[in-house]
Amino acid sequence: MDYRKTTLDNGLRLLTIPMPGVASVTMLITVAAGSRFEEKNINGLSHFLEHMAFKGTQKRPTALDIATLIDGIGGEFNAFTSKDHTGYYIKAAQKHLPLLFDVLSDMLLHSKFDPAEIEREKGVIIEEINMYEDMPIRKISDLYENLLYGDTKLGRDIAGIPDVIRSIKREDFIAYLNRFYGPANTIVTVSGGIEGSARELTNKYLGEWQSKKPEQPEKFRDGQKKPALLLRHKDTQQAHLCIGVRGYNLTHPDRYKLGVLTNLLGGGMSSRLFIEVRERRGLAYYIRSANEMYTDVGNFVTQAGVDIKRIDDAIKVILAEFAKIGKEPVKAEELKKAKENLKGKLILDLEDSRNVAGLFATGELLEGKIKTPEEIMKNVDKVTAEEVRETAQNIFKEQTLNLAVIGPYKDEERFEKLLIL
User: Fold this and answer.
1) Where, by residue number, does the polypeptide cross the bilayer (predicted)?
2) Are 244 and 378 within one domain?
3) What is the C-alpha separation between 195 and 27, in angstroms, rounded?
């Protein structure tokens, strides 16, 4: 897949990825700033800022003005906040690309941050936080990272906490933008059926954005020496757990080996954990494995919703599979299936211009280097059975085991005894 990278005089980077035969176009603006940039007294501000971008600008004073405009062209628009970056996008028919530049640049540079609107949106965000608290299947992943990274910027929840959200004022948004948003750490990505010159549009709408040096986040250093547990008592009908270990960062040379390993363990309905935990023992409805990779650290996790009376059995089976994959070489047929699964999912994702924009933007933004889909698939193909086994031996260590649980339990010692490899 071909792409072009252009850097403007102010340091802003533009990525264009043509997709022949696609009638839509996605414009995505990503900024290398997220919740791990926040001090405790503004925890949740990155996410709050994402909400406020859609609440009105000098040119389009209300949220309705923005929504009506995009709805009027049949477009999709949204934003997202992670711990290390934030994104804003609009996807629409290709002929509307100039309008997409107009609207997104306006939101980025000229949001009003009306105090009355801020106060109203506080209620929305607090209800979003409350919603997550009532959804163990969603909340458990937050608790897992709370456990891994503790009371640090990386360990806090992206949405923040209600008391902090209530205290945020207009000047906090302005200060945050001045500290963390600038052309140097922002990328404009245009993918799909591109008509006209994206370079000219970028210069027109964002070329005058003043260059500056945004602040950088503090690094996290792993130093775990014994297994750790976080138990959240909740009267649920199903127990939700996250169990895993510390993994690799975003640029680690073995990241693709870990990706194949993760797929083998919990990447689909024929994965080892799905078969052993759900199909053979009926211990869970859902079970899956994933990697979360940041620029400095990473983690591997298996998440499951299990029978509250048989959670001990589920944990034992999961840990047994962690140990097994590091001892016995993966058979050729199973390894091939895992690789084809990873590549197939990537190919399906690439049918959507929004996914294409996200793939290229995050590579450039967080790694400083774009890997095309073809390069990614080649790296997956290179992984051998022995490398999978070695990777498992490297990461699955008893001292770095971590378990987070939400369910009707109070006995921590019960779970601590299970953390054995």
Assistant:
1) 12-33
2) yes
3) 12
Per-residue pLDDT tens over the stretch 17-66? 999 999 999 999 999 999 999 999 999 999 999 999 999 999 999 999 99
Which residue, chain included where needed, has tokens 């926040």? 38
Write down the catalytic residue from 38, 50, 117, 364.
50
Mean pLDDT of 334-343: 98
Give 222's pLDDT tier (boundaries 50, 70, 90).
Answer: confident
pTM: 0.94
| Residue 113 zone, left/alpha/beta (φ > 0; ψ -120 to 50; rest) | left
DSSP-assigned letter for residue 111: B
Answer yes or no: do 21 and 98 share one domain: yes
d(CA 312, CA 235): 17
Is residue 220 included in any domain, yes or no?
no
Residue 280 belongs to domain with CATH number: 3.30.830.10
Are the beta carbons of 217 and 84 closer than 8 angstroms? yes
Provide the pLDDT for residue 163. Answer: 97
Answer whether residue 211 is part of any domain: no
Query: What is the token pair recorded at 154?
Result: 């990386």
Structural domains of the chain, count: 2
Helix H or strand E segment including 5: strand 4-7
Angle, helices 45-52 vs 115-133, to 10°: value is 120
Are 27 and 119 in a shared domain?
Answer: yes
Report how far residue 307's alpha carbon sits from residue 409's, in angstroms, rounded to the nearest whole number: 13
Do 129 and 61 lie in one domain? The reply is: yes
Domain of residue 85, residue span: 4-206
Give CA–CA dist 270/275, Å, rounded. 6
Same domain, 136 and 19: yes
Is 50 in the active site? yes
Write down the pLDDT at residue 171.
Answer: 97
The torsion defined by the Cα of 281, 282, 286 and 290, in degrees rounded to 10, comes to: -10
276 lies in the same domain as 178: no
- List the alpha helices (DSSP H) in 20-169: 45-52, 63-71, 97-110, 115-133, 136-149, 162-167
SS3 content of the chain, % helix, strand, coil (to 5): 45, 20, 35
pLDDT at residue number 91: 98
